[in-house]
Amino acid sequence: MAVRIRLKRLGRRNRPFWRICATDKRAARDGRVIEELGHYDPHLANQDKFAINRERVVHWLKMGGSPSKTVTELLGHVGIGPKGDEIPPKPWPKQKKGPPPKAVERLAAEKAKADAEAAQAEAGAADASAPAAEAPDAGPTPAETEAPDASS
Hints:
Blueprint: E1 3-12, E2 15-24, E3 35-40, E4 50-52, H1 54-62, E5 66-67, H2 69-77, H3 101-134, H4 142-145
Parallel strand pairs: 1-5
Antiparallel strand pairs: 1-2, 2-3, 3-4
């Protein structure tokens, strides 16, 4: 039986995580496994995203198990070579900390422009309402003074 060390997908839609498994090469991706060796969750921080049973992984590699490309990359981060030998661990790629600086500058400029336009509109509305509020009362309107009395 040809043993392959590969990932088995679990989780829900748009939120997957994987178990690292020793399985028969002919089995389905999420099918029956011989042994579960660890897990990989890419949504967690670097130190928590990957955990394995190092002893069992080395055992299966020494017995002739072949890791998939992705598992080979993951094992490289903990210092295990494709044949079960020790290698220097590779660092995890740095995670992005937020939007790129150009996008931040563009958003800040758009916000400043919108604030300036809002301030101008507010000042224009205050100027238009100020003369109406300061206008003296001209007295009663003609309709108020000519109220015909129907009872007389």
